Amino acid sequence: MAFSYVIEHMEEDEDTQKSIPKWVELEYMHMRTFAGPEATVHFTHLSAGSCNTLSSLFAQDADSTRAQAFAHTKSVLQLMEEKGVSIEKVCLLDPKAENELSPEDGDGRFEWFLFGGILGDNPPRDRTGELRALGFPGRRLGPVQMTTDTALGVTKVVVQDKKPLPEIPYMDFPTIVFNPKESVEMPFRYISDGKGPVLPPGMREHLHEDLNQSFDF
């Protein structure tokens, strides 16, 4: 069964012409790879600037091995109404949900899986609470905070690939080493490929550049 993954962008006080930060862009693009070619990824509630940026990136990268992706200024509720999807068919990935996500949740009870972006706050802020209040059925992914793209990747592995949460290889709070003198600890949980955390393409370079800029006086 092909699923849709929806990321409701929840950055605060975003100007209508402001574009998304580079690290968010990298994570959002990585979600297409995690979701796979049969899936669809929707980014909702974007500013006009962010919507234009993502739409342009998606148009330039029509890789058939990745999920189709669409950027919207409309909210998830508006998109649901447009697509004729009922709230009972949308699963909110919620760290405060009573039940953990399981392979059975991919057996037809849900069609869409909804994420409150951006999940990568440290310490975590309960932005998902705004979506929880709307009445979506919820599932949690475990006790450790994940990046948004990791959360989508884990969801796909569970509901599409039918692998239970405890069987997924994780790496918590990895240290990214650039050279003997420079490194940065990431305060999140990632999927592990056996060698290290699965990061978005370009993220390591962006982190190094960001680290260097922070010391550029």
How does this model look, in words?
The chain is of the alpha/beta class and 217 residues long. Helix content is 29%, strand content 19%. A 6-stranded parallel beta sheet has the order 3-2-1-5-4-6. Helix 2 (48-60) links the parallel strand 2 and strand 3. Helix 1 runs parallel beside helix 5. The radius of gyration is 17 Å and the shape is globular. The N and C termini lie far apart (53 Å).
What's a concise summary of this model?
The protein has helices at 22-35, 48-60, 76-83, 128-132, 148-159, 203-214, and strands spanning 4-9, 40-44, 68-71, 90-93, 112-117, 138-139, 170-172, 175-179, 182-185, 189-191. The chain is an alpha/beta fold and 217 residues long.
Write the layout of secondary structure elements.
Layout: E1 4-9, H1 22-35, E2 40-44, H2 48-60, E3 68-71, H3 76-83, E4 90-93, E5 112-117, H4 128-132, E6 138-139, H5 148-159, E7 170-172, E8 175-179, E9 182-185, E10 189-191, H6 203-214
Parallel strand pairs: 1-2, 1-5, 2-3, 4-5, 4-6
Antiparallel strand pairs: 7-10, 8-9
